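pasting for the record
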Amino acid sequence: MSDELSAMIRGAAQGEAAAFDRESPYSTNILAGFATGIRRRRMARGATMSVGGLAVVGLVALGIGQPWQPSPVAQSPTQSPAVTQSPAVTPLPGLHVSVAQLGPSGHAIITIDGVLWITTNAGGTWRKLDVPGTLARGHSVDVRGATIAAATIDSGVLVYRRSEDGGKTWTSQRLAARLDSTEADVALSADGSTVALANQRAHSSNFGGSMVLCVGPVGRDLVARDAPLDGTPVWVGTHLVVAGGLLASELIRSDDQGQTWTQSTVAGVKAPTSGAVAGDTPNIGTPVSSATRAIVPVTIHGGTSASLSLLTTSDGRTFESIGAVPLAGEVGAGVTAIGSTAGPDAYMFADPTSTNLHWLSGSGLTTVPTTGLPGTPEAITFSDATHGLASVPSSSSTVLLFRTSDGGRTWEAAARPSA
């Protein structure tokens, strides 16, 4: 195959892929409606498979597999044949990292070439972080000041590791709970005093399940308890909250560190704990918690349009509406929005159907159009109202990391950490 034809094929595939990601957010987002536990990265892989299909169509359109005949080119006897240069392949923007775990308040941990790096100021500065063992999949590290809590896998056993001096020294606890999967989510309370570590239970389908939740003070061994819902744990003050379930339709709370659970009514709906869930049921995202309150993002379906409703709570029991904004595109059942704190009593949420952001300060809600992001972020974190990080899945096995210094309006590749 000629270099020119190879270049045409690559260009066709890249063009189709860009059109797929840009014009059909529904095709990507609907995958999330099949399982609450599926992360955006897995959805992106599904989109990549579809892009591969488009590339095959492009090959057929170009006549691959059929006898190829060169087109006649009229030339002057004194002229040399024109030489066509293969177009340069533009590299994907963003800093390529193997793993990106974006936490609250500008905290993030990334892996590049097997080395862990941590930032506490949204990528302004980085330092190496040595965590014993292999980090579990999921949001397996959380940071509050000098306190770090992590979940690792050691010889097939889930291990809780904690450090109270910024990672210089570690204390470990091999958890008694059976390892049901290699994915774990770790959540520290706002003051860094209490931790919850969730290990999702394996189940026969991806339509909900339960999990083992290990809870306790940071400086002590954790106690394993059963949680009736699979999802991401979050502390709202001293209350432990988990959002998840079928099509992200449930939110449960515990006031006694996971010993007992109660289902909350969110957005006027209390979803059934068994049986079918309607496709237009509101989808409850992971609450974004600060020292004083938490904001719960809820996707509301309204016929041909959808909106993002933001609710505030101080206990995971009662909720008040702050406001709602329309989403930019179509959204499938079960799709939720992600967010981050962004300074005192300020929050930022990502539109799950576009690259738009939604800024909440007090009770004022503003949409922030962005430039520089190639797709919908799978995670964001802001250290203040100005500086933030966003991770976007790529078509390869890496994640693209971006940084903003103007409140999310413009984004560029995050600086590569160096020793």
